[in-house]
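Q: Hi! First time doing this. I have a protein sequence and I read that you can turn it into a structure. Is that right? Here it is:
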Amino acid sequence: MSDKYENMSVFQQLQAGLEDSIAHSKGQITLKTITLPAPPPKVGAAEVSRLRRKLKMSQAVFAATLNVSTKTIQSWEQGVREPSDAALRMIQVVKTQPAVVQSIFTQPSRGATSRRKPKRGPRAGRMARSRADSR
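A: Yes, that's right. Below is the predicted 3D structure, encoded as structure tokens:
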């Protein structure tokens, strides 16, 4: 809402808005107009899979890129679910600007930590069990 309406009562805001509308229709004032972007294009299961393979990403990497789960990517690719509008917009960005998206994810972020658990060797589990068994 503009500063003009900020200190007005609701009735005064309605009255001023109607007066502005009448003045606009008479050509006395020009109102600011904003064009909204078109909604993102729909993407089918085959297209999600094709895009992911074109980008040479695993389902897990593609999921991380879009900030969704791997199961979500799997369900999109199988046609079980459809991406939300927000996901469709992200897919559109990844599809049309892959270099920009790649540059974002290759930059090290401050304070970033790995989500993966440290790998345990094959003997680590056996040793823990043998110690427990010897007690």
